[in-house]
Amino acid sequence: MKTLRNKHYGKPAVLIGGGPSINKMDLNKYKDHITIACNGFYLKMEDLEWSPTYYTVEDPLPAKDNSKKYPQFNQPQK
């Protein structure tokens, strides 16, 4: 986490959850923003023109199950 400290200092970031409300949002407007996506966000990936800057999951089982489908998320797990 030390490597992230102040990395984007002064820049706005968008936190995107994985709940059903993301289906009602135009998420492509955030493609040029610093984004932190979590949990079920990966289900929306096929509809987007971009990948989040950061992605985090609480439940490792769905993440592991979907890691081959979304190779951009195959980063070190902590």
Global structural class: mainly beta
Strand content: 15-25%
Low-pLDDT stretches? none
Mean pLDDT: 82
Largest sheet: 3 strands, parallel
Distance N to C terminus: 10 Å
Strand tally: 3
Spatial ordering of strands, largest sheet? 1-2-3
Shape: globular
Our count of domains comes out at 1
Rg, Å, rounded: 13 Å
Task: Give the count of helical stretches.
Answer: 1
Could you state the order of secondary-structure elements as H and E?
EEEH
**Level of helix content?**
under 10%
Brief account:
With about 80 residues, the protein is mainly beta. The chain is built from 1 helix and 3 strands.
Highlighted features:
mainly beta; 1 helix; 3 strands; 15% strand
Structural notes for this entry:
With 78 residues, the chain is mainly beta. The chain has one domain. 9% of the residues lie in helices and 15% in strands. It is built from 1 helix and 3 strands; from the N terminus they run βββα. It has a 3-stranded parallel sheet, with no helix packed on it. The longest helix has 7 residues. The chain starts with 12 loop residues before the first strand and ends in a 12-residue tail after the last helix. The mean pLDDT is 82.
Topology:
Layout: E1 13-16, E2 34-38, E3 54-56, H1 60-66
Parallel strand pairs: 1-2, 2-3
